[in-house]
Amino acid sequence: MLEAVKSGKVDVGIGASSIFLQAKESGLAIVGWSNDFFPQHPCCRIVAKGKAVSGDPDVYRAFLRALLQAEKIKDTNPALAQDITKRYMNIDDNLASMFVREPHQHVSVDPDRKRVKQMWHELKEINYVTSELDINRYINTQLYRDALGELIRRNPKDRYYQTAKMHFEKQDN
After folding, report:
1. Rounded mean pLDDT of 15-24?
2. Which terminus of the chain, N or C, has fewer Cβ atoms within 10 Å?
3. CB distance 84 to 66 below 8 Å
4. Closest Cα to residue 70, out of 59, 80, 60?
5. Alpha carbons 116 and 61: distance in angstroms, whole number
6. Exposure string (b/e) for 25-50, b if CB count within 10 Å is 16 or more?
7. Domain residues of the chain, as ranges?
8. Region for 38 from its dihedrals, namely left if φ exceeds 0, alpha if ψ lies in -120 to 50, beta otherwise
9. Over 90: is that where the pLDDT of 24 sits?
10. What's the pTM?
């Protein structure tokens, strides 16, 4: 899609945020974001096979704790997040700043059960999904609850984790 727009074969394309930097580097304009139309939609959920999770849940809880800590850095210390992004993605300061500070790049590891269910319903309404699958069976909020709870136990006065807990209680119960 990106190559088709760059070459002029099409006038516009729709892509995931993973091509954001390539689009910017190519000089293309971002004319709209999906969260302009569906604010705070549950993009980019973490998925894993149930057997793998049940076989070693501690690994997945640790993974979620690490992601929560990274989210906190991005939110509370964007300069550090920008520096880390620059180093690990091997990009310049300007691109790292765009990537980290773009307000449409909403990052959250919270399972966001209510919005996932809402999106599932909406995708079924437009026949993008035709399954009768019960989505509730595939949304695991317990691992996130445990990971966040552990971070709160370690950092009981941390406002970022307390706010994450309030969001979780609102969206995932």
Report:
1. 80
2. C
3. no
4. 80
5. 20
6. eeebeeeebeeeeeeeebbeeeeeee
7. 1-31, 32-59+69-171
8. beta
9. no
10. 0.85
Q: Which two three-digit tokens encode residue 85?
A: 């992004």
Q: Which residues contact 39 (CB under 8 A, 6 or more apart)?
A: none
- C-beta atoms surrounding 170 within 10 Å: 11
Question: CA of 106: how far to CAs of 71, 99, 150, in Å?
Answer: 10, 11, 24
**Residue pair 71/144 in contact by the 8 Å Cβ criterion:** no
Q: Indicate the residue type of 101.
A: R
Token pair in block for residue 51 = 């057997």
Would the pLDDT of 66 be above 90?
yes
Token pair, residue 104, equals 């449409």
Tokens of 134: 């019960």
| Torsion 125-129-133-138 (CA) sign | negative
Pairwise CA distance, residues 147 & 153, whole Å: 10
- Enter the DSSP assignment of 91: -
